[in-house]
């Protein structure tokens, strides 16, 4: 149960009910962070527009590289909701979710490509507190993905840090978008 309960569809106005309908149609259920954010209508609308815009704009990196970096942030921050939802998105994109069980061994696992390893290591460095990103790391990413790709990766990792930290702070936990506990983040 989140620290601030979500706005129930029965208590929602027509605009919010329409947004809930769209989200349920798209994801099978209304994402709980969306229902909590609904307490602040302007932020919720801004967030929805932003998320759709970012989704449309993020096409420089291979989807698997981007999604693994975002997943890693969720795992490192400890946001079980983001891990749950991110796993579902990867499955729907046709990506191999079984290897997520071994993401802690990404640096040595044959399950990950060199590009994926670079992106995951960058996600780790950006998520660390304090950040541990180096010039050499960014140079290697630039050679691999180009400047546009590095900017996209950086933006996606930073955005997931924001999402995961907000959800974690508000006590929003996994919602059941994936079955089983294979990718669950243990709760503290």
Automatic annotation (TrEMBL):
Give residue ranges for domain Carboxymuconolactone decarboxylase-like.
Answer: 56-124
Q: Which GO terms describe its molecular function?
A: peroxiredoxin activity
Q: Record's Gene3D superfamilies?
A: AhpD-like
Superkingdom is Bacteria
- Entry-linked SUPFAM superfamilies: AhpD-like
- Record keywords, A-Z: Oxidoreductase, Peroxidase
Q: Which PANTHER family match?
A: 4-CARBOXYMUCONOLACTONE DECARBOXYLASE FAMILY PROTEIN (AFU_ORTHOLOGUE AFUA_6G11590), CYTOPLASMIC PROTEIN
This protein is called Alkylhydroperoxidase AhpD family core domain-containing protein
Q: Could you tell me which species this protein originates from?
A: Actinokineospora terrae
